[in-house]
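Cross-posted from the bioinformatics board.
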Amino acid sequence: MVSGAIALAFLPLLLTLIIRYRYYFVLFYRAVLVRIWKDCITGLSREERAYQYVLTHSTPGDPDSILDSFDYWCSKVEYISNIGPKKGKILDRMLMEQSPLTVLELGAHCGYSTIRIARALPLGGRLYSIEMDQTNAAIAEKIIRLAGFDDDTVELIVNPSDEVIPRLRSDYNLERVDFVFMDHWKKCYLPDLQMLEECGLLGKGSVILADNVLFPGAPKFLRYIRKSGLYEWKIHRATLEYSKGIRDGMAELVFQGIK
Amino acid sequence: MPRDSLIASDNDADITLEFEGGEEGGHKERRHREKRRDGSKDRRKRGNGRRRQGSRSVERENEEERVGEREKERKRRVKKDQEAKKRDKEEGDRAQTRSEKTAKAKKNIKNEKRRRSEKEGEAGERTEKGKKKVQSAKKEKSVNHGTKDKTHEEKKKKRKKVLETSSEQETSEEDSEDKEDSEDEEVKPESLSPEELEKLKEAVDDKKKLIQSLRGKPWPMKKKLVTLRESQEFLEKYEGALGKGKGRKLYAYKVMMMKKWMKFQRDFENFKTACIPWEMKIKEIESHFGSSVASYFIFLRWMYGINMILFGLTFGLVMVPEALMGRPYGSIPRKTVPRAEEASAMDFAVLWDFGGYAQYSVLFYGFYSNQRAIGWLKFRMPLSYFLVGVGTVAYSYMVVIRTMARNANESGVGDDNSFNFSWKMFTSWDYLIGNPETADNKFASITTSFKEAILEEQESRKDDNIHLTRFLRVLANFLVLCCLAGSGYLIYFVVRRSQKFALDGLENHTWWERNEVNMVMSLLGMFCPMLFDVISTLENYHPRVALQWQLGRIFALFLGNLYTFIIALMDEINVKRDEEKIVKFNITMWEASLYNGTVSENFTAPPITIHPADVPRGPCWETMVGQEFVRLIISDTMTTYITLLIGDFLRAVLVRFLNHCWCWDLEAGFPSYSEFDVSGNVLGLIFNQGMIWMGAFYAPCLPALNVLRLHVSMYLQCWAVMCCNVPQERVFKASGSNNFYMAMLLVILFLSTLPAIYTIVTIPPSFDCGPFSGKNRMFDVIQETLESDFPAWFSKVFSYASNPGLVLPFILLMVLAIYYLQSTSKSYKEANVELKKKLQMQNEENKKKNKKAAQKALMDLEEARKVALESAGHQRNNNASYQGQQAREMQPATRVPRTINHRSHGNPGYLPNFPLQNETMIRRAPSLQRH
């Protein structure tokens, strides 16, 4: 059998791996282990727990306080992959610059990014938020209402994005989307983008912001936007939400159309 | 015209200029002498020459054809000239009047038909007229550049028209006449007088100078191109006319030879590059990964060269003579596998451990016999063995130190931090990069380094948080020390345990336990650097500094491991020597019993011949040491290759092919592809070499093994780098680190020769194996040689020379010499620094001066402009000439040449415009460069 000394020689390797990838281990612990543990204990889902916390710790009608309590819960208590405060600043800035009238959000999750976008919308702007999961959508709905946004500003659509996008034009009378925020399944980034192109919802100057393109990462999506000459694009480099060491990025695409 | 061809033609022009310059004088003379020679021969030659010139660049082929046509035309015309001269006197007056008419007709492009009978006569006159025209044109040229250009262009146009017409209808006579008319304006060298030739020559010179100075002219590019083309055409046309006869031929020949020579040189360079082993591979890697990775491969190649020489020495002077001329296998006990091991001597496992037949072969020390001279050559084997051992080490020292000195010269100027940002600005690009991805990385790294440098500057001014970084650095070093101590202890523990195993008998233990030492050493050598790398991120050094720290740490680790290993070996040597004493005693007993036995039986019988395999023998510790080193090298090589295959290749394959079906981006995220670890690889190489130096005395096969290893790893690593590594994220130049490697190599060389020398000097060799058996010490072989192979006086001299009374003063002298050299080099360095300062001062002064001069020039220019404007206003009032003159007089010093030109308006001589301007240009250019 392998002797103990040889096994000990692997100790530096183990240490190296642990130190180098410590953020990933921490993330794994917080996002997976703690979640399973709490699920077992409380019998509630993660989103429901978050909602409970937000409900008890923030002032209703004040989006900022809701966002703050969300951030606190996600960084200190448990982990939900919202867009987070740092990348959220980029999102805010872009919304301020563009001041889009029609915004499409893919993947509302529990409403954090929805509130962020709705907060920054100009007067008369309208946000269409698509969420696939029923329970998540219910919580998102509650949180949006809690933040004080009504149906006129935020339209929550509970359906998978690949079913909704082709029907946007007919059902919701959308001619053109000024701003698209993608934060749902990373594998759906590319097909959804292509679907948006096919439906002609993107006009010249439409901005598409895709979160988490580096981690967990959407390589096919990035490859596609590199190849297709339809977009002017750049990647905002940042770290993963509520974590310091994992690098992540948001892809900003500006639709140029066919020249 | 594409730019390439333009450049090429430009170069051509340069070459011609160079060679024309040399032959100028010769041309003149020849021109005078051969002027009235038979024309047709001349012309043929000229045609040839022109054809050669034309063939220089492909794009001139068309022109060559045109030239050929022109030649035909000219021939015809000259014939007519000769006829015409006969009739000149007869038809003088009438021709004059006609010629005036033709002159008018010339201006109309559609020429009227003329009678053929009168044509010849007119032609003669026309040539004369043409000459005059050329003269006047020349005057204009020399007077004013602009007008010259214009006239030249006009000529060009006309000639072009002529060419068109000639290509359309060559045979029709009307057209040929027309052509003659217009061609009259061109210069016909064979019909020119010496003075005119002079003028023509001057014009040609002017053109040449224009071409030369064209690059510095403040004209728009289009104009430059046009003038370049025109002047080249001009040159091509008239230059040929000036040279004649032999000179022409020689010239053409010379140009041709020049071309061929240059081509040959280029080919030879290519050939030379192709001859350097792996040069292309390394260049390719360099272009992909930057120079730091390439420096590793260059180092590897250098190492390979050294090992080739070491291998040549040991192989040629030790192994081959012993194998060919020494006693064959099985003749004496040391050359035979013992009876107990015979059964398993050919097993692969045993051979793989370098036991069995491998142990009893030329590969190891024990096989060599202690005969003084072997074979018919009387080859002194023990002496050769000793000298080769010493020679390899001496040669390695020499090479390493020489290379270090050379490198030190290159980097002697040293880094100074005074111009941090300008260094970054102007020297940070790695021009050897040829891969877009690496270029991107380099670009990113440069920008980040700029950011960091700016931040650093700011922080250094703020000077806060320095305590944190200091604390972190101390902490990192502490962690590294802990790690080093741990690994040292682990190795010590393992070695001690292995000794226990050895005492128990190795057969009772598993393969793992037997190879524990090597395994643990390799694994620690592999994994600890990774840990150091992780720890070093704490320190936040510049990558180059970080690399050096990393190198230093790994160096310490390897050194610690190696020395632990050696200490363990020393223990084992002592054990073996104790064993040897017992065996020695036993052997005498055994021999005595043997002989006693025989003696008792039979007196006269010859001593019993015992098969050498049965003779008891001592544990040859030298062979044991050699075997240990060989095993270490083998296991080290294996681990390197296996890490390469698993850590790089397998990882790359997994990342590449699992990326399609994985929940995160494998390429950009967690495992990613590996980077090439320069420091680890370099150190591996260096320590490998250290082991070779250490063990080569006891195992002559080591250099051969190392050559093999380096050869394989060259190909394997080249492939692995290109196939599974990605360029480093922070690409940096490795220019400074080369000497660092060398210094480490030197240290390792010293540290590895230390134990070898220690064993050679202090431990007596085994009594029954190796070339020095039977001697008290290994170096006794030299004494022995001196006594028996050299004349008596030599040994006497040697003994005197080795007298401490002589040696000590000599050493003292050497120390003094070293001290002197060091102090002189120090003073030189200081002088260098002083000179540098001086240069800087001078530069600054020049800068100031220049600024002043430039400001003054600017002011003058503006003044002149004002005056010019005023004068323009005056011109409208019709009194321009006087004012203009005044304005020009008032122009500043920089404009002086031009005023001179203007003054030379009235000069009848051909005072060329360009030389003067050129002179100013030349005078100005260096002053510009200086700053």
